[in-house]
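User: Round two. Same drill as before: sequence, then structure, for each protein.

Assistant: Same drill it is. First protein:
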Amino acid sequence: MTLAFPGQSGTLWEVMARDAFLDALGDTVDRVRILEKDPATLDETLKLACRLEAISKSSTPPGESFDDLGRRRARAAGSGESAQNDEAAQRVDRLESALDELRRELDRCRQENARL
């Protein structure tokens, strides 16, 4: 919001910032729960979102956990789902390796360009 509307403030700015933040969450259930509380500012909206996230993570059923990125890990699935999950995990690993390799190549190119 600061980049889009430099120097702006006020009630309308707060409403636009709040709505943009809630749209970025991508979770309509949390969006509705937050809007029910009618936060007036972006700070209040952020506090409510953090509180809801903390509550939802603390009420996780036994056996369900989260990975390093905060994504919910699936509970024990059927053999077909498990195979799909394993395949997806392998694809993610390959993509992350390729991304790391491309980043190294980009850094190398930047260093060569800096020398020129």
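Second protein:
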Amino acid sequence: MNFKLDENFGSRTQNIIREAGHQVHTVYEQNLSGAPDTSIYKICSEEKLCLVTLDLDFSDVIRFPPKDSSGIVVIRVPRNPSLSLLERLIREFLQALEREKMESKLWIVEVGRIRIHQSE
């Protein structure tokens, strides 16, 4: 699978995803830091990359329809999460990805659960 990490993730997250056998790109690589959410969504859709973000705005399925994307993953963490918690949620997401397809879906990954929204 091919992913694009939003600007709120660092190299450790990139490495976790790569170690799981996936391709990973970042908004930094395309100088998209600070770009509007709509631009990031459009670019990810065009490039067929699944967006991984902490930005809860991407959970709005009207504004960012999953059906028009290669998938959106919103990692939902408590305020000021530890790095270990963030890494644990990324690993849980990657394990779930082994059982479930990502394309055209919104995944909200939280402590203790993953909610999947699939467009009809």
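The first strand starts at residue 2 and ends at 5.

User: Perfect.
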